[in-house]
Every structure is written in structure tokens, then in C-alpha cells.
Design goal:
CATH architecture: 3-Layer(aba) Sandwich
Oligomer: single chain
CATH class: Alpha Beta
Largest sheet: 7 strands, parallel
Helix content: 25-40%
Shape: globular
Radius of gyration: 18 Å
Number of strands: 7
Strand order of the largest sheet: 3-2-1-4-5-6-7
Order of helices and strands: EHEHEHEHEHEHHHE
Bound molecules: nicotinamide-adenine-dinucleotide, magnesium ion
CATH superfamily: NAD(P)-binding Rossmann-like Domain
Structural class: alpha/beta
Number of domains: 1
């Protein structure tokens, strides 16, 4: 399947997934996901929309982040991305795909719970890319716990550290590098608007990200920097089988969306490319829903 080949019915252009029972430790690996996901390596075609741009994508080893990294490279950007030590195998594949598109890849290993790493990774990316003008805050933690009495505060604190506090640290560190014309894009979620009962901590961080996006946009518009977000619905990534969903929900993942199927990471790429490129020059403080039809307002 090529995205630009003609007319596709969106309900059937990707199949309804037949998901076997599976469980991975956190963070999950794309290399172990069954069935495998589409990150756009064959389906996405670049059109020079980010020629010469310099992007940093957190959590670019797998899932949505990998699809964004591949699309950015195909559109002409050099791409730095972060990953955890356990994700080296996935990170190597993202590196291969960026390089296959003829662009520079800068993989950066580390944990966003480490405050110093949040600052260092930005400086490292800016040095290796010789500048920075696209920042995608995409890394995230999601662990499903159906009862607040069983929800450990340690998990709540980690989810907030990784999903939102790291975002503050990374944006603060990026400010000295980002010239006018730069774009910041945050990954929020349908969960910011329609929280699942078992994702109390995760959903709260996603609501915080949506709010942070709008406030930061108001502040940075004066500097010529646009800030937007993407709110994915159910997307088939390693976040889900690594305790992101209980087993009974995992095997039916995406079936509840109006499209009747889960989304693929490649289906997010267009929104992130649009928000990074000059095509969205009059768009800031916006949140684009890529949810298969679940409204966010
Ligand atoms: P993913 O597991 O492929 O990506 C998440 C990434 O977060 C991991 O690859 C990992 O590198 C990074 N990460 C997690 N903990 C980290 C830590 N302590 N330090 C550094 N990096 C860490 O899954 P994904 O679904 O592609 O997730 C990407 C983003 O999309 C997340 O913010 C997630 O909340 C969001 N999202 C996903 C869905 C979905 O259905 N998959 C829906 C809405 C929002
Ligand atoms: Mg990963």
C-alpha cells in the first residue's frame, strides 16, 4: 500500500487487526509486536516539505515516534531521537530507516526520569544536527491499573515525570536553540478528553499536555515559534501490550473506534509533518485529533 496511489476507503485501507494474547515488559519493543505495525517505510512518500530542517523526536525508536522520524527524514529533515537502553534494537531500525531516506540520524540513549539527561539530550541533538528547529515531545508511559487503591504512587510519579515534567525540562533546554520559524509538537491523547477508568494517571498527564500546549503557544508566538499537539486515538504500538491495556481490551484493541479498527503509526505521520512544516504557518495552539473518528471537542 502506498498512501498516494489513489482512492482508499479509510475503514479498510488497513485491516482490522487479529491480535493474539501477548505481554511484554515495559518498554515494549516493536520488533516483538504481533502483528507488526506500519511505520511508513514503504507507504509514506516524501515531498520535500521539511528540506534542510533539524528535528528532535523523543521516543523515536518505535511506534508513533518512529513513524514521525521516518516521515521527517523522507521530507528532507535530519533527525535526532531518544530511546531507552532496552530499546536499542528498535532504535537501530529507526536509524536504518532515516539513513535509507538519505538523511542524518542521531540516536540518543537515556531515561527521561533523569533530569540531567532531559537537558543534555537537547544540547547533544543541537550539536550533532548543527541546530534545532523541530521538537517533538512524544515519549510516554502508560500502565493500566483498574483500581485506584492498587495504583501505586510510584507509578503516578513516574508517569508524570516522563509524560509532562520531562516536557517542561526539554522545552526549557531547547529555547536557546530554537530560531523563529521553529515548531514544537507534543503528543497528547484522546485520553485527555475521554479518560479510561484504568488510566487515571496517564490520562491526567495527557490533559496536562493539551493545556501546556495551548499556554506555551500563547507565550512563544511572540518569538515566532509555533506550538501544537496531536491527539492520537487507539494506535497499534508496543505501548499497548507492555501493560498499557488489560488482556481482554488488548485483543480487541481499536475495535471501539468509529473506523472499527486500530490506527497504524504511519497514519499519524501526516499530522506531525503538517505541524512542523511551513504549510501550517498560521496554525498554533491547535490540537489535531487522529482518532479514527472519536471527537475531542
Ligand atoms: P511506544 O512505546 O512505541 O513509544 C513510547 C516511547 O516512549 C518509547 O519508545 C520510549 O522510548 C519512550 N519512553 C517511555 N518511557 C521513557 C523513559 N523513562 N525515558 C525515555 N523515554 C521513554 O508507543 P507509542 O504509542 O508510539 O507512544 C508515543 C506517544 O503516543 C506517547 O506519548 C503515547 O502516550 C502517545 N499515544 C499513544 C496512543 C496509542 O494508542 N498508541 C494513543 C494516544 C497517545
Ligand atoms: Mg519504544
Amino acid at each position: 500500500m502506498k498512501l498516494y496511489d489513489g482512492l482508499y476507503d479509510p475503514t479498510t485501507m488497513y485491516p482490522k487487526l487479529d491480535i493474539p494474547e501477548q505481554r511484554q515488559d515495559e518498554p515494549g519493543l516493536d520488533s516483538k509486536l504481533q502483528p507488526t505495525a506500519d511505520h511508513g517505510q514503504d507507504s509514506y512518500e516524501g515531498h520535500g516539505r521539511l528540506q534542510g530542517r533539524k528535528a528532535l523526536v523523543t521516543g523515536g525508536d518505535s511506534g508513533i515516534g518512529r513513524a514521525v522520524a521516518i516521515a521527517y527524514a523522507k521530507e528532507g529533515a535530519d533527525v535526532a531521537f531518544t530511546y531507552l537502553p532496552a530499546e536499542k534494537e528498535d532504535a537501530d531500525e529507526t536509524t536504518r530507516q532515516i539513513e535509507a531516506a538519505g538523511r542524518k540520524a542521531v540516536p540518543i540513549e537515556g531515561d527521561l526520569m533523569d533530569a540531567a539527561f532531559c537537558t543534555d539530550l537537547v544540547d547533544k541533538a543541537a550539536v550533532k544536527l548543527n541546530g534545532l528547529d523541530i521538537l517533538v515531545n512524544n515519549a510516554g508511559k502508560q500502565v493500566y491499573v483498574d483500581d485506584i487503591e492498587k495504583l501505586e504512587l510510584e507509578q503516578v510519579e513516574q508517569t508524570f515525570q516522563i509524560n509532562i515534567i520531562a516536557m517542561f525540562r526539554i522545552v526549557k533546554a531547547a529555547m536557546k536553540h530554537l530560531p523563529a520559524g521553529s515548531a514544537i509538537i507534543n503528543t497528547t491523547s484522546i485520553q485527555a478528553y475521554e479518560p479510561s477508568e484504568g488510566l487515571l494517571d496517564y490520562a491526567a498527564t495527557k490533559a496536562a499536555i493539551a493545556n501546556f500546549t495551548k499556554g506555551l503557544a500563547a507565550q512563544l508566538v511572540k518569538k515566532g515559534i509555533r506550538v501544537n499537539a496531536v491527539a492520537p486515538g487507539p494506535i497499534w504500538t508496543p505501548l499497548q501490550p507492555s501493560y498499557g491495556q488489560p488482556m481482554e481490551k488488548l485483543t480487541k484493541f481499536g475495535g471501539q473506534s468509529p473506523m472499527g479498527r486500530a490506527g497504524q503509526p504511519a497514519e499519524l505521520a501526516g499530522a506531525y509533518v503538517f505541524l512542523a512544516s511551513n504549510e501550517s504557518s498560521y496554525v498554533t495552539a491547535e490540537i489535531i485529533a487522529v482518532t479514527g473518528g472519536m471527537p475531542i471537542s
